[in-house]
Amino acid sequence: MTIIEADGIETVPETVDSLPVLAGQRYPVVVYANQPVDNYWVRAPSDFANQTFAGGLSQAILRYNGAPDEDPMSTPGPYKLPNLNASIPDI
């Protein structure tokens, strides 16, 4: 996915595999649907896993047209924090 904005401020586009989002933050992103037809997890882990519903994991299924109606088989990968400071212009 490519981050195009952070909290209402346009950024230098930054392509990332993961993105930390805390309460009140907004990051519009572009997701490129260029993978084989299948089902894919979209996961949003929380830094407050022990204090939230479902162990802090929010999740959804991204399902391509023509994919079977079943859960994806993938497991969570390593969570990498991108350095976004350089992408946000000075105000």
Automatic annotation (TrEMBL):
GO terms for molecular function: oxidoreductase activity. Residues 66-91 are annotated as: Disordered. It comes from the Eukaryota. SUPFAM superfamilies: Cupredoxins. InterPro entries: Cu-oxidase_2nd (IPR001117), Cupredoxin (IPR008972). It holds the Pfam family Cu-oxidase. Belongs to the multicopper oxidase family. Residues 1-67 form the Plastocyanin-like domain. This is Cupredoxin. It comes from Suillus plorans. Coiled coil: none annotated.
